[in-house]
Prior knowledge:
By secondary structure, this protein is mostly beta strands. Helices cover about 0% and strands about 45% of the residues.
Amino acid sequence: MDVWAFNTTDHTWKHITVGEGQQGPRHRWGHTATLVDATRIFVFGGFNHEYNMNDCWLFHSDTCHWEECKVTGKTPAFR
């Protein structure tokens, strides 16, 4: 998945390089992305050309590392 950061001071975009060989979430759109704290962004769901996704990921911006969330229980319905 492409990750971009927007600098609110100088209004520029920067492409973030994720660790080589690291697996992250599939490309998607229509997902949610929520800032958890200063270094973690939570990504949930979305769509691609084949699937409605119902997975959860954390992106650690300080290390440029993706972590798949292990969740239990009933998941929300697709929207």
